[in-house]
Amino acid sequence: MENDVLIGQQIGAYSIQSRLGEGGMARVYKAYHARLRREVAIKVILSQIAQQTDFKARFEREAQLVASLQHPNIVAVYDFGDFGNQTYLVMQYVGGGTLRDQLRGGHALDPRQATIYAIQMGKALHHAHLRGIVHRDVKPQNMLVPTNDANQLLLSDFGIAKLYDTRHEPTLVNMAGSASIHDPSLTSVDQIVGTAEYMAPEQVNGAPVDARTDVYALGVVLYQMLSGEVPFHSTTIQGLLFQHVHTAPRPLRELNPYVSDTLAYIVARAMAKAPADRFQSAEEMAQALEAANSNATYQLAQSQPFSPGFPQPAFINTPPYRTSASVTNASGTGFTVPVTGRPARRKVISYIVSGLLVLLLVALLLVKTGILSSFNPNNGTLTTTAKAFTENFQNNDRNWTIGNLNNLTASIANNQYDLQISGAPGGGQTYFPHPEVGTLPDNFTLTVSIEETRPADISGAYGLAFRESQNASGGVSCYALIIHTDGKYQVVKYDPNASNGFTTLGQSNNAFAAIHKGLNQFNTLQVTVTGSTFTFRINGTALPGPITPDTAYTGGQLAVLVAGTNAAFVVQKVALAIQ
Questions:
Q1: The domain that contains 526 carries what CATH number?
Q2: Which of 15, 73, 357, 527 has the CB geometry, 3.0–4.6 Å to 124, for a possible disulfide?
Q3: pLDDT, tens digit, for every residue of 67-79?
Q4: Active-site residue among 4, 54, 110, 137?
C-alpha cells in the first residue's frame, strides 16, 4: 500500500491521502478537498473495467442517478470525473468502519441492534428502488458506520447497481422519461454481478433483477447479524451459488435462540427462493421489522402519576380494548377467583411449513392491529401452547425481554433477570417483561421469585401476571398478583376499559404476615389455575378471602410485572408447571 502511486497525488481538487480498500471494480482512497475543508472518499475505477467499450458513458449516466439519491442512510455522491485514463467517483467519507468489521470472527449483534440496522438499510434501498436503481451488491462491506453515531448505518457502493425498466413495476416511480432507464448498455457489464455469499437465486440464474433481489440480500445480511455467520458455506463459488438456489438455510433460532420467532420468520421470508414469496419491497420488510421491534416488550400507553398510598400503585391508564366482563360475588375460605370468558388468544409459531402458510403468516404480521402478538385462533393459523419449564436465567434461551425500551432496562446476567425503571420523579410506568414460551393452557401453576433492590421514588410494585395480551393501541389485559415493599398485596385485573386501566379484585389493607417486607427481600408469588379457579399464594401461604371474582380472560401468556420510577428489581426464578 505504501507503493501506491496515487497516494500524495492531486486528482482535480482532491489530495489523495491513503488507500481505504479495494474491491472487484475499484480502489477507494481517503482524500481531502482543501477549499471546502472536507474529507472525502474517492473510488477510482480499475483500468480493466474503465477500458470497456462505452464504459465512461454508462458510468456518467449511472453516477448522475446515484448522485440524485438523498437519504440519511445512503452515502452521498459529491462529484465524478476523469484524470488521465482513469475514472473516479467522489463520495461522503464515513470513518467508523463497516458492518463487516463488527461481524468479524463470527460475532453476532444484539437482535434489537441488528433490527435497527436492517430497518435503516431497508428504507435506504426503498429510496433507491423508487428511483429505478437496484443495488445488486448488498453486503456488510457496503454498510458504513459513522464515527459519531454507532447506531446509524449508511449504504454505499451504488456505483455497481444496474438500472432496470420500471414500466411494469407499478409500485415504483415510472422513470420512462429518462433514456438511461431503458438503455440496454447499462446492464452489459458482466463483471459486476454481486457477491456470492449474498446473491439472490435470480442473480445466480441470470434472470432479471428488481427490488426483491436486494430484499433477499438484506435478508442474508440480517441472518448474518443475528447468527454471526452467513447462511451458506462452501469451498467453491459454484457450491455457494447452488445453495442459494436449491438449499434451505439452517433455522436461525438453532444458531441463536435469543432471536424471536417473529424475527426469524421475517428473515426467512426475505430469503425465500422465489421473489414472489419475499417481501415485495424493501419498505415492506422495514415495516415488518419496525413492528417486531415495537412489540418486543408489552408496554402500556401514557402513564398517569402515582398515587402515594395503597391500594393504587403505579398503573397506567390505557385506551379502550373490550367491554368489561360481568362481575359476581364469591365467598369461602380459600382465595379463589372463578373465571370463564372469551376464546384463548394464541401466539404464532413463525415457521414456514408451506407456501399457503407463508401467505397467511405474512398477512398476520402486517396487520397493524396485531403484529403477531395475539389473534383469534379461528382464522386457521397454527398455535403453540406453553410447556412446563423452570427458569434460573443461566441464559436467555426462552427469549425474555432484554434491552432498553421507554425507561425500562432489562438484562440477564449472573443467573438473574435484572429490571430497572428510570424516568422523571413523580411519574411511573408498569411493564410486563416476558419470555416467548407460548400461550398458557387452561390448567397450570406459575411461580415467580422476585425482589426490589432499589426503592422507587414513590411506590414501587412487583409481581406476576398471567393470561396477558395486548391490543393494537398498547392496552394490556391480564390478571396480576402484586406486592409492595410495605408488605401489602393486591390482585388486579388490567382492563383498558377501566378508568385507571385496572380494577382491584382483592387486597390486604394491612401488611400480610407471609410477605418479606423491605428491600432486598425475595418473595415467591404463585398462582394455580385449575379450569376456572385461581388460587394465590405468597411464600407458600394461601391468601385469604373473600374476593370478588371476575370472568373475563383466558389464554394469553405469562409475564413478570414491575412498576415505579427509578426502581430496580431482580427475578431469580420463574417456573411453569402444567397440571
A1: 2.60.120.560
A2: 73
A3: 888 899 999 888 8
A4: 137
DSSP state of 344: P
Q: Are residues 114 and 249 in the same domain?
A: yes
Contact 480, 489 (CB under 8 A): no
Radius of gyration of the chain (CA): 28
pLDDT tens readout for residues 317-365: 222 222 222 222 232 333 333 332 222 223 333 333 344 444 444 444 4
C-alpha cell at 153: 448505518
> pLDDT tens digit string along 417-464?
999 888 655 456 788 999 988 899 989 999 999 999 887 765 678 999
Q: Which amino acid is at 463?
A: G
- 137 noted as active-site residue: yes
Q: What's the pLDDT at 351? A: 36
Nearest to 198 by CA among 227, 218, 171: 218
CA distances from 380 to 342, 469, 471, 520 (A): 17, 19, 20, 47
| Closest by Cα among 392, 362, 349 to 288 | 362
Same-domain status, 450 and 467:
yes
Strand-pair category, 533-538 with 523-530: antiparallel
510-547: per-residue pLDDT in tens?
Answer: 889 999 988 888 999 999 998 778 899 999 999 986 56
- The C-alpha atoms of residue 503 and residue 547 are separated, in whole angstroms, by 13
Residues 81 and 105 both lie in one domain: no
Residue 214 in any domain: the answer is yes
Neighbours of 393 (CB within 10 A): 19
Report residue 446 as a C-alpha cell.
406459575
| Same-domain check for residues 125 and 243 | yes
Cβ pair 501, 299 in contact under 8 A: no
Those residues of the chain that have pLDDT short of 50 are 1, 161-192, 296-383, 426
Between CA 500 and CA 317 the distance in angstroms is 5
Looking at residue 519, its amino acid is L
Judge if 194 and 230 occupy the same domain.
Answer: yes
Find the domain containing 423 and state its range.
336-347+383-578
